[in-house]
Each structure stands twice: as structure tokens, then as C-alpha cells.
Amino acid sequence: MAAALFARQAGPEEMQKMQQVFADLDAKYPRDAAIRNAHAEFLWETGDRNRAVKTWREAEKIDPNNGAVLDHLGGSAVADGEIQQAAEYYARAIHSTPDNADYHFRYANVVFLFRHDLHDTTHPDSDSRIAEALHHFAEAVRLQPLNAEYARAFAETFYSVPQPDWHTALQAWQHLYDISTEKDFALVNIARVHMKLGNKPEARAALARVQDPKFTRMKGRLSERIETE
Fold first, then answer.
1. Spatial separation of the C-alpha atoms in residues 104 and 108, rounded to whole Å
2. In angstroms, rounded to a whole number, what is the distance separating the alpha carbons of residues 109 and 119?
3. pLDDT band for position 181 (50/70/90)?
4. Helices (DSSP H) in 144-182: which residue ranges?
5. For the chain, what percentages of helix, strand and coil (3-state, to nearest 5) are there?
6. DSSP-derived 3-state class of residue 79
7. Measured between alpha carbons, how far is 43 from 21 in angstroms, rounded to an integer?
8. How far is CA 106 from the centre of its chain?
């Protein structure tokens, strides 16, 4: 019902009725974390974010291992700039539901983007956090192999790894090429990785297949590098 109301952009009166439905459900099923989670999602979408977070925390107390609740709390922590807390919530979500690609992806994003702020005893430097992000991007791709957003994030992360496995990176970019509509973008990066591996003929061949005019300058620079480096 809530989804239907949002879909047709219902007015305040109908939204208020829906709020009462959730309140009645909370009262009738006080130990149901799924109902609290749905209520919190509704509150978040209507802009009542403080009450949404409060309701998610109530759901967490009911079921501390509810992946959906932990994932939402991670997202709300990111929105509030509480990065350490967000990483902890996302890590718990993964632990509770390890086969959920979305949880792996969101955790990897936070760890990668805020790697300089997430040092601890097990991750003493940013490089160790990048390696962790790469692992979870890989898991997201393994679990959702046709998700181009996940495939691109995984492939791009290799450029930030101190000692990247360029053979695995090449496979990652080839996979993106196979599933994505951004063929030329993938081809440019396939050429770059072939250069890293010293495969000049393969790099030239990949660039020769790039047709989109927006890659003309990049294609020219890479072609020059292939011949001079």
C-alpha cells in the first residue's frame, strides 16, 4: 500500500492514513522487525528521517541480525556523515546475509571512498582497505554477474590497488564489455590493461574497435603511449 501511494504521489491525507496503518501494525505486532523496517522505510521516504532511524533502531533491538534493517542503518549513517558507524552496520549486514550482492557493494563503496578515515588495528593503512573493497566488489559481481554498475566498480578499483593483478583486471573489464552497453568505455580500459601487461598488439586491437567520438582524444593519447612506452 505504501509503495502504491508513493507511485501515484498521493496527498498528505492518504499518507497520514498510511502512517496510522503502520502505527496499528506496530502495536499489534510489537516483536516483528519486518513491520518496523517497513514503517521506517515509509518514514524515510516521507522525509521524517529522525523517526525513521529511531524505528530502525527499534527493529535492530528486536532482530539484531536483520540484514535489511542493518543495511538501512548503514545508509542513514552515511547520510549523517558517521562513516565508521556506517561501515560497521554494512559489515554486520553482510555477516547476516552473505549472499546479498547489494550489501557487499555498499560496504565496498564506503570502505573505498572513505579508506583514509577507516584505519584500525586490522586495517592499519588505506591500502588494506582498498584490498578489502576490491574483495567485496568482487563478491557483488559474483552474486549479480549481470549488474553493470557492480562490474564497473570492481574493474575500476584495480587502478587504485598498489600491486594490482592485471590479468584479473583484464577479465573484469572484459566482463564489463560483455554485459554493458558502454562497449567503447570498456574497450578503452581493456587497451589500458593490455598496455600494463605489455600486450601491445592486443592494446592496438582494442583501441581500433573504439568508435564513439567522445573517446577520440583518449584513444589518441593511448595510441601514442602504446608506441612510445
1. 6
2. 15
3. very high
4. 148-157, 166-179
5. 75, 0, 25
6. helix
7. 12
8. 4
C-alpha cell belonging to residue 142:
559474483
154/165 Cα distance (integer angstroms): 12
Run of H or E including 96: helix 83-96
Closest to 113 in 3D by CA, of 128, 127, 100, 130:
130
Here the contacts of 206-215 (C-beta below 8 Å, separation 24 or greater) are 209/184, 210/184, 211/184, 212/184, 215/184, 215/185, 215/188
152 close to 174: Cβ distance less than 8 angstroms? no
**Is domain 1-63 in CATH 1.10.10, yes or no?**
no
Q: What is 73-163's CATH number, 1.25.40.10, 3.40.50.720, 3.40.50.980, 3.40.30.10?
A: 1.25.40.10
pLDDT at 119 over 60: yes
Would the pLDDT of 227 be above 90? no
Q: Which residues contact 107 (CB under 8 A, 6 or more apart)?
A: 74, 87, 90, 91, 93, 94, 136
Q: What is the DSSP string of 38-66?
A: HHHHHHHHTT-HHHHHHHHHHHHHH-TT-
